[in-house]
Specification:
Radius of gyration: 18 Å
Strand content: 5-15%
Organism: Dichomitus squalens
Bound molecules: glutathione
Distance between the termini: 27 Å
Shape: globular
Number of helices: 12
Strand order of the largest sheet: 2-1-3-4
Helix content: 40-55%
Protein name: Thioredoxin-like protein
InterPro entries: Glutathione-S-Trfase_C-like (IPR010987), Glutathione-S-Trfase_C_sf (IPR036282), Glutathione_S-Trfase (IPR040079), Glutathione_S-Trfase_N (IPR004045), GST_Omega/HSP26 (IPR050983), Thioredoxin-like_sf (IPR036249)
Number of domains: 2
GO cellular component, one term: cytoplasm
CATH class of the largest domain: Mainly Alpha
Pfam family, one: GST_N_3
Largest sheet: 4 strands, mixed
Length: about 280
């Protein structure tokens, strides 16, 4: 950690800022789907990006997942965000787990059940090409099992040697993902690689974008992180973060810096995710 930094005791934010605040305001009235979210949460941002990208109507509802209000616990057994409340059912139905929710939204959009006039692009290759779809799922699998935990191990590492090890682990995880993107490109699926010829978002892009964003502000600030040299990868990062659905769900850098100070100093009981990393267990 750069020496001048010290734990100033800042807490996580409870309201989006910047573009995300505008998007939240524009989605504050009742809809068939309510997203229970928290402004700093990357798992929430996945779902939020998918809703925006797929053009599905929704209400954004901010909650504090550490206070675990009853209305959140009704939807999500561990009181984790994101959670969806499906208001068209009586009583309403619920879904939790970001990966499952994004899958659900993709299927909802594709089956044309509920769609606004936004975009209607699928996050996956067509159903007629199961192999191509599996390649995208492989990318998402490495993000979930390797890249996401590597991000937290790096950010929570306190001693210098642990931070160096953390940086290595995170960079290796990025390289693993790049290898899978290149494999898709080499096998002719250029839309699902680093270059992403269709200029759209894939399932893997949605899965990774929140941590790419937080690497550019949180990891950079607290760990002095810089991207690997590759211009190709840096181009991917730029395109991903400039995508309208990503931008619309992004708060200002300060929100993330404040909200992640507790991780950067590994304060006790920061979150279920932080506890799992400290205990060497799988993330919740
Ligand atoms: N596996 C879950 C993880 C969600 C998660 O960890 N959310 C955090 C906020 S970023 C949370 O709700 N934390 C509350 C807690 O730790 O008690 C998912 O993918 O949705």
């Amino acid at each position: 950690m750069p020496e001048k930094l010290h734990d100033s005791g800042r807490s996580y934010h409870l309201q989006c800022t910047g573009d995300a605040a505008e998007t939240a305001r524009a989605h504050s009235s009742k809809e068939a789907i309510t997203l229970f979210g928290s402004c700093f949460c990357p798992f929430v941002q996945r779902v939020w990006i998918a809703l925006e990208h797929l053009g599905i109507d929704y209400e954004y509802y901010e909650v504090d997942p550490y206070k675990k209000p009853a209305e959140l616990l009704e939807l999500s057994p561990k009181g984790l965000v994101p959670a969806l409340r499906l208001n068209a059912h009586n009583p309403p139905k619920a879904l939790n787990e970001s990966t499952v929710i994004v899958d659900f939204l993709e299927e909802l959009a594709v089956s044309n059940v509920k769609r606004s006039s936004h975009t209607t692009e699928s996050l996956f290759p067509p159903a007629s090409d199961p192999y191509a779809r599996a390649l995208v799922r492989l990318q998402a699998d490495t993000i979930e099992r390797t890249l996401v935990p590597a991000f937290y191990r790096y950010l929570q590492a306190q001693e210098e040697d642990k931070q160096i090890e953390g940086a290595k682990g995170f960079i290796e995880a990025i390289e693993g993902l790049v290898t899978l993107f290149k494999r898709a490109e080499n096998e002719g699926y250029t839309e699902y690689g680093l270059w992403n010829a269709r200029g759209s978002l894939s399932y893997a892009d949605v899965m990774v974008a929140p941590w790419i964003l937080r690497a550019t502000n949180v990891l950079k600030h607290y760990r002095g992180f810089v991207w690997p040299e590759s211009k190709e990868f840096q181009g991917y990062v730029e395109r991903l973060l400039a995508h309208p659905a990503v931008k619309r769900t992004t708060s200002t850098d300060q929100l993330y810096l404040d909200s992640y100070e507790r991780y950067a100093f590994n304060r006790p009981n920061t979150s279920q995710v932080a506890n799992a990393i400290n205990a060497g267990k799988a993330l919740p």
